[in-house]
Amino acid sequence: IHALGERLLQIHHAGEMLENIEKAINAHPDVLTARFVKTERRHGLCHVRDPEKSVQPFVVTREGEPIKRHEKKSSVVEMLLPVLNNTDEENALYIKMRHFKNHLNRDDLKVVQSLLAQLNIALDNLRYVKETADLVEELTRSRVREEYVEQLRNTNKQLDQKNKELRRLFRELQEKESQLIHSEKMASLGHLVAGISHELNNPISFIYANMKILNTYLDDLQKELETVDEDELRKRMEEQITELRSIIEDSARGSLAVKQIVKDLKSFSRLDQAEYKSIRPSELVDTCLKMMKTQIGDRVEVLRQIEFDEPVLCNPGQLNQVIINLMTNAVQAMQYEGTLIVRTEKSEDAWSLSVADSGPGIPAEVLPNIFDPFFTTKDVDQGTGLGLSVSHTIIEKHGGKITAENRAGGGAVFRIILPLGDKLKHG
Ligand SMILES: Nc1ncnc2c1ncn2[C@@H]1O[C@H](COP(=O)(O)OP(=O)(O)OP(=O)(O)O)[C@@H](O)[C@H]1O
Ligand SMILES: [Mg+2]
Fold first, then answer.
1. Within the chain, which residue ranges are assigned CATH 3.30.565.10?
2. 92 or 325: whose pLDDT is higher?
3. Using an 8 Å Cβ cutoff, are 48 and 58 in contact?
4. Does ligand 1 have an atom closer than 6 angstroms to the CB of 185?
């Protein structure tokens, strides 16, 4: 078997069968030697060696049928028998035997044929063993690959999930940040307003009080004047006193108005109060309209339509913030003249407050983004893009909804819809 060359070494794997074949052949008294060899031919070569004569080859077909017969009496027959299997491997069985007959008879050929058949089975077995081994290897490899792919897929899925989570956290962070920035903005505005209110309160009370004192002095002066004899002088002075009284009256009215403004400012500055209380929608609307007075000015006409005004439970500071954001947007959208409509309504289990304007409306491509934090179409110094996102958060915290649409007649309308009664969430 060792002599069989590299390619036939594989036959070791085919088990003992081949060895047994060789042994069996060698055990035959006429056989000098038998072994498997490597050959380059498709046909086996069988030749008879005669010591006196030159070698006379004769060929056996694949089936072992000799083509040419040897006539010599005693000689050595060398046979190279092709191994017929389904592979391209060209192996052969080499047998060297004594041969006394002048030719190979039918029995000899039968033996050869059966030998070849057994050999073929052995080689087929070898092939199957090899194929099975390859298959097993391939299978293992593909199973490993499948497992690997599966594992990759799982890892991918996990990564995907992590990514989604990251994105969600990022958005949350952004929202929190925008709320912080906005509430900081509102808080510092609140502090400012509270500070100013406080500072203004004293001098205004002082002026208001002084007006009263001035009036009493005037009363005294008038009484004394009645004792003055000169008609002309008295008349002139009385005229001046009347004038003075009207000035004082105007000033008193002015300082009262300032007092009222300071009071409003104070209620506005309580923005950060996280408390829920009962308040009429009209109060919310009016506080905000007052705050917006300068921004609204003369160019914008205000239509105040209070269709629903029963007390509702809410966080007024926060709702004021929302309404002011909506009103500011509306007024900013109307570049020149326009109409601002503020309307409260009631539906089955909710009430709503809408702010409509007669501006250009919201462009369709912008509409899906307006509630996103930092989304703005305004110049850098005009808007941070936080108004609507913060409003959205506040309304959500109230368990409500905020919607935006364009009006049929032009302009935009924003509506906050808030639950009534038990449905209210305390955020
Ligand atoms: N009434 C409206 N008419 C037309 N577009 C509007 C109106 N209200 C809001 N928008 C659009 O929505 C965007 C986002 O509004 P949002 O109030 O969130 O931010 P902003 O007004 O730009 O800035 P900020 O309110 O922070 O000062 C605006 O930039 C604008 O494009
Ligand atoms: Mg805004």
1. 273-423
2. 325
3. yes
4. no
* CATH code for the domain defined by 179-266: 1.10.287
Q: What is the CATH number of domain 273-423?
A: 3.30.565.10
User: Is the CB–ligand 1 distance for residue 391 below 6 Å?
Assistant: no
The pairing of strands 300-306 and 338-346 is parallel
Q: Is the dihedral of CA 356, 361, 367, 372 positive or negative?
A: negative
In the chain, residues under CATH classification 1.10.287 are: 179-266
Whether the per-residue pLDDT at 392 is higher than 50: the answer is yes
User: Residue 383: CB within 6 Å of ligand 1?
Assistant: yes
Least confident among 63-72, 154-163, 303-312, 349-358? 63-72
Q: Which residues fall within 8 angstroms of residue 285, CB to CB, at 6 or more apart? A: 304, 306, 323, 342, 344, 353
Name the token pair of 408: 């049929």
Residue pLDDT, tens place only, 158-171? 888 888 888 888 77
- Measured in angstroms, how far is the CA atom of residue 305 from the centroid of ligand 2? 23
